[in-house]
Structure formats: C-alpha cells, structure tokens
Design goal:
This protein is of the alpha/beta class. Helix 5 links the parallel strand 5 and strand 6. The longest helix is centred in the last third of the chain and has 24 residues. The chain binds S-adenosyl-L-homocysteine, iron/sulfur cluster and FE3-S4 cluster.
C-alpha cells in the first residue's frame, strides 16, 4: 500500500553537497512523502523511538525524533506506530538479547499496519554479524543503519520510501561531525550535549571503541553555541556527554582541556547546572578538580568508573591506572569537595578474577564509600581482547561475587544518603511523580532523587527542599520554608 507515489521527488542534480544542507534537502522531500501517505491513510503518521542504551544513545534518539517531527510524523506513546525505531545498545550480551527478544513480535505488528516502517540503528548494528542475522531472519525490517551515519537519517528515510525491501547502510567509520540538525529534547528545561564521540581507550572488555569508532572532539565554539542556544530556550541544566570527557580537546586543531571548556560553559547566562559523563580515572586532572571546586554551576557529582579494585585486573582490563591511583584520586576529590557524590561502575567476573582480586574491589568500595554504583556481570563481547582470554570465571562464581558486591555497595550508598537527612538542598524539579500525582520528583546537585508535594508549575524550577526522610536511595521532602 505504501510507496504508491505519483512522483519520484529526488532530483540527483539538485542534491546539495555540503552538510547539513544535504539533509535538509532530503527532509523536505521526506516531508512531501509523509504528507502524501497521511493523505492516503486519512490520519497523521505516527512514530516511536525506543532507546536501549546509555545517555549517548538517548541523545541520538532525540536527533532521530527531531528529524521525524520535522518531516511531519507525530510522536506516539506506544510501539504501535507508523515508524518504529529501535536505537540499540550492545555493551553487554543482554542488551542484544532484549532487541532480538522483541523483534519477532514486531513482524506481527507490521502485518496489521500497511503504513508501518521499522528501523534499527545504534551500536548493535555496527557489529557485522548482527546486520547479517537481521537480513536473514527478520526480512520485515525496512531500514538498518549504524552510529556513524546517523546524521544521514533523513536521506535514509527517503531511500526507504523509494525502494522495495530492506535498506541497509552501515559505515565502518565516521567521516565528519555534522552540526545543526533538528532535535527533539525529552525535557524542555534540561538536556544533554555531546562534546565528543567515539573512544580510543580500548579497555579490553569493551565493545564501544569498535561500534562508536575513534575519539573525535567537537569544536568548543560549536559546543558553547549549542549550550547558549539551549539556555536561551529555557534549559537550566546541561549534561555534557563523552565516553571519556577528561580527554576532551586533545586532538583539536587548537587543543583545549575539558576543565577549560567547563570554565567557559560556566559563563553562559541562564544556565544554572552543568553535569558531565563519563570521567576516566586515568585522565582526571587536578585542574578539573579545582574548576569543579570553584564553580557555582557544576554539580557536586562525579561518576568515576572503577571497574575493578585489583591492580592486576585493571592491568588486564587495560584501564591504565591502579588501585592506589584510584584511591588517591578519590581522596583528592573528596578533600576538595567534601559534599560531592562519587558514583561508579564495577564489573564482576572479568577473566582471571580470583577471590583475592574480588576482595580488592570490596576493599575499594569500603574505602571510597560510593554514593551509588552500577554493578555488572562481565559479559563476553566478540572481537574484544578479553573475549579470548583464558580463565573465564564460571557463572556461579560470578553470581555469588555479584551478590556480595551489591550488598556492600547498597550498605555504603544507604549510609551516605542518610547523612543528608534533615538538611536543606536545592533540587531541580523534573516531573510529576509516577506513582503519586500529588508529588513531584526533583534531583539534587549530587544527583540524588527527592519526592515532595507539589504541582506541575514547579517543573523546570530549582527550589530549596528540606530532606525530611531518607528512604535508602531517595528522599521524601518538602519545599523549605
Ligand atoms: N566510557 C565509560 C563507560 C561506557 S560503558 C567509561 O569508560 O567508564 C558503561 C559501563 O558498562 C562501563 O563502565 C562498564 O562498567 C560496563 N561494561 C562495559 N563493557 C562491559 C562488558 N563487556 N561486560 C560487563 N560490563 C561492561
Ligand atoms: Fe569502553 Fe573503556 Fe572506552 Fe569506557 S573508556 S567506552 S569502558 S573502552
Ligand atoms: Fe552506549 Fe550501549 Fe553504545 S552503552 S555507546 S549505547 S553500546
């Protein structure tokens, strides 16, 4: 039913060569197709973008949504939409399984809706075996693309409209950074901004450098311009994103440190809070610590992935720091900013991890007293050096260590959270509470969550909140009098 157009709109002679002009040319064509389809259908076409991965992935989804809206699709609340996109993640095996687990059902959904298009993109698509499997086992998928050509989404949509069968376009590397494409922010008062793409660290367990490509920093002027425009548009909190923000700017024509970028971001009028993710312990500078300490806008939160507390494991993980370095760093950070929240990522069961190595991890958790920690079971990723290491840890041992680590992490987190009970802190109110409509939910500078009585008018505002009761991972509070 779809693709019965009375005209082919792309005029090859008129396609602009430069970006983003080229994409705007295709967006205008896509807009005309969408208009015609909606006319046939007798209702606006709808879209839904499902994000499976990290903040980087979520930010990409905002760009996809921006383009879909620009060309005339209307956002839907469920996957039963005319254009469904899965923006996938592949950092651990279960991320992939989640996608495969749902794909089968989508075939049935598509049969019911002749207008439905199904697109798959994101990190998982950059794995060669995945595109192959989709081609063979899920022929009803219309569009498959990767992380490097996401900026060409508009062009890919037009190709999908104009061709029968599956469109697959996956690039091995990125060719450029394209600025100024549409975006649809999830919140009007807070947003993420990419400061760099890719990763060059090649931690031996991690697939990200293979699916996101080489590290590339955006020009500081572009970043600051985007932040300024957001602030003028009412954004009060911005999270700067990169796999390793501490190595920002090293490869720019005019190199700039991350600390310097923050110093400049601090000057942006109207912007009230700055966050960033993720910091690699090997590159975290004293300059950054002092910029944070002296800043009124940078939030009191540092996510500093530990991965393991054992220097022997860290070496095998290619993390390029050891236990002592991490402990000393955490101490310097806490000494400079006693109220900072330190959070972390920890992997349990990396190949060769012994009981002694694991005890070292517990030791760091006890010494640093993290405010929260994401704990992961090691997942073997094809193509990474760790996948072919000997002494893979048996699942039962991994699970047993995981449970012990979780108990320790939760105990530390609860103790840290309790320390703020009864105090007064500013919170950015983000939404109406999901369970109780009489409450709103806000976030403290240290990233902790507080629920308090309030109405929708408070959303997007920073208010002083009394933290009446600590409930372990969050607080119940009220607006301070
Ligand atoms: N760039 C960030 C992390 C990105 S991935 C950093 O370097 O800290 C997010 C987290 O997923 C990592 O910190 C790590 O703890 C976890 N992770 C990555 N690969 C993994 C694997 N193969 N198995 C289990 N956890 C993994
Ligand atoms: Fe993966 Fe390491 Fe890069 Fe983080 S720094 S994305 S863990 S390779
Ligand atoms: Fe993020 Fe997953 Fe890709 S963690 S970078 S979406 S592999």
């Amino acid at each position: 039913m779809r693709r019965t157009f009375d005209l082919r709109l792309v005029d090859k002679r008129r396609i602009p060569e430069s970006e983003p002009e080229r994409q705007y040319y295709f967006m205008d064509i896509a807009k005309e197709y969408v208009r015609q389809l909606a006319e046939q259908k007798g209702a606006p076409l709808t879209f839904y973008v499902k994000t499976f991965g990290c903040q980087m992935n979520a930010r990409d989804s905002e760009k996809l949504r921006g383009i879909l809206e620009y060309i005339g699709y209307v956002g839907a609340d469920t996957e039963d939409a005319d254009f469904l996109i899965y923006n996938t993640c592949t950092v651990r095996e279960n991320a992939n399984n989640k996608v495969y687990g749902r794909l089968g059902g989508l075939g049935r959904l598509k049969k019911k809706n002749p207008y439905m298009l199904l697109g798959l993109c994101g990190c998982m698509m950059q794995e060669p075996s995945v595109a192959e499997r989709i081609r063979e086992s899920y022929p009803f998928v219309d569009l498959v693309f990767g992380t490097h050509n996401l900026y060409r989404f508009a062009e890919l949509i037009v190709t999908t409209f104009e061709t029968e069968g599956m469109t697959i376009d996956i690039w091995e590397a990125a060719d450029r950074i394209v600025e100024d494409l549409p975006q649809d922010r999830s919140y009007r008062f807070k947003s993420c901004v990419n400061i760099m793409f890719g990763c060059d660290n090649f931690c031996s367990y991690c697939i990200v450098p293979y699916v996101r490509g080489r590290e590339r920093s955006r020009e500081p002027e572009e970043i600051l311009r985007e932040m300024k425009e957001m602030a003028e548009d009412g954004v009060v909190e911005i999270m700067l994103l990169g796999q390793n923000v501490n190595s920002y700017g090293k490869t720019l024509e005019h190199p700039m440190t991350f600390a310097e970028l923050l110093r400049r971001a601090e000057q942006i009028e109207g912007l009230q809070r700055i966050r960033f993710m993720t910091s690699h312990p090997k590159d975290l500078s004293d300059e950054l610590i002092s910029v944070m300490r002296d800043s009124k806008k940078i939030c009191r939160h540092l996510h500093l992935p530990l991965q393991s507390g054992s220097s022997r494991m860290l070496k095998r993980m290619n993390r390029r720091y050891d236990k002592e370095h991490y402990l000393a760093l955490a101490e310097r950070i806490r000494a400079a900013m006693p109220d900072i929240a330190l959070t972390t990522d920890i992997i349990v069961g990396f190949p060769g991890e012994t009981e002694e190595d694991f005890e070292e991890t517990l030791d760091v958790v006890r010494k640093v007293r993290f405010d929260s920690a994401f704990t992961f079971l090691y997942s073997r990723r094809t193509g990474t050096p760790a996948a072919s290491m000997e002494d893979q840890v048996p699942p039962a041992v991994m699970k047993e260590r995981f449970d012990r680590l979780l108990a320790e992490v939760q105990a530390c987190a609860a103790e840290r959270a309790m320390a703020l009970q009864g105090q007064r802190r500013p919170a950015l109110i983000e939404e109406i509470n999901e369970q109780d409509g009489a409450l709103v939910t806000g976030r403290l500078s240290n990233n902790a969550v507080v629920h308090l009585p309030g109405t929708a008018e408070l959303i997007g505002k920073i208010v002083d909140v009394e933290l009446l009761e600590c409930k372990g991972f969050y607080y119940m509070g009220r607006i301070a009098r």
